[in-house]
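Hello,

Our lab assistant flagged a job as stuck in the queue for most of the afternoon. It eventually completed. Since we weren't sure the result was trustworthy after the delay, we are filing this so someone can double-check. Below is the sequence as submitted and the structure that was eventually returned. Let us know if re-running is recommended.
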Amino acid sequence: MISEKKNTINVGDIISVKIEKMIFGGAGLARLNDNDGAKGAVVFVRYAAPGDELRVKITVKKKNFYEAEIVEIVKASEHRQSPPCEYYQICGGCNWQHLKYQEQLQQKQNIILEQLRPVINNQTKVFDIIPSPKEFRYRNRIQLKFSAPNLGYHQRGTHQIVNIKDCLIAEETVTEKIAPLRKSLIQQNSPPLKVIELRQQDTRNEEELNFSQVNSLQNENLTQLALKWMTDNSNTDFQPKYWDLYCGNGNFSFPLLQLLKATKQTPVSIVGVELSESSVAEAQKKLTENGIDFQQLQFFCADVEVFLRRHTPPDGAVVLLDPPRAGASEYILKSLANSNISKIVYISCDPAALRRDLQRLLEYNSAWQLTRLQAFDMFPQTDHIETMVELKRNHS
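-- returned structure --
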């Protein structure tokens, strides 16, 4: 006789599951049935693959879900592969190396569609995810921790440092610096360092971190498409002005200026807003070095919300919104929603935060429509996803 009592599974129990899909956060999802005594509950399993048949040990028990770790792979999924990194499942970095790359792309596309389903409508053009030009060796910088004699990443779930010789997702011009840096730090009797950044050109400590994209080739794809969407304007009654919010050191602003000049879209007016003083200083230096007129492109060092409390975007402006992982504040979204701008291009590295922000923006003003959606695989071998959406104001 099957028990109808729910939550009869406890921490430490070993059960059999089949993985349906990957979810936002990187785990595999399995559903429990009547025979498990917990109908309706789900189990989240790290390092699982869709189609895996597994024996798993319950590690966390909640009302409607469990977390578990793999005890035995009874039948491996066709989407599973042997991870090439010797530190995989030890270091706290990559979590999808066990998935074949095409399956990583498919699962990321599915996650984006599932997360953004509440805001997608019949008019939204949804494009297939753009693969990274490189599956490995794509990062132009890495952030390591040091505590003599170890230099590397934190072990997953701990503050122990995994002493690494190489990192397969970083460019070789970066990883070749690991061994000499470790030797130098030990010789100098360096104290523990929470963050030390290795880059292609130089090494920076935690006080000098830069906020540009780590995947240079994919960033180029993202930039080019963002510029295309920003300047693709069917309304020729006005010459739009551009606001680049959370502009960093001008990752989008400078290429946008070049594009507008090349296509003779004049007069040019671009405003960049960024809180990081070092990033704005870098952008200002580039303005001076290239003799760019501040009336064409100017940068403001300010919190975006504070800036919007003091300045209103011009009528018909196109706004690029590229906030940190947490997303934009309610005030920012309300200000943009109720302004008379014509378009918003929003770039996000967190699908849940993006969904929340889009829902808020559409609630504040129903004249806005989500018109295009494009995902990018900026971080292969991990569950992280970069997404760009376009919203247009329906002036009718």
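-- support follow-up --
The delay was a queue issue, not a problem with the job. The result is valid. The first strand starts at residue 14 and ends at 18. The chain has nine helices and 19 strands.
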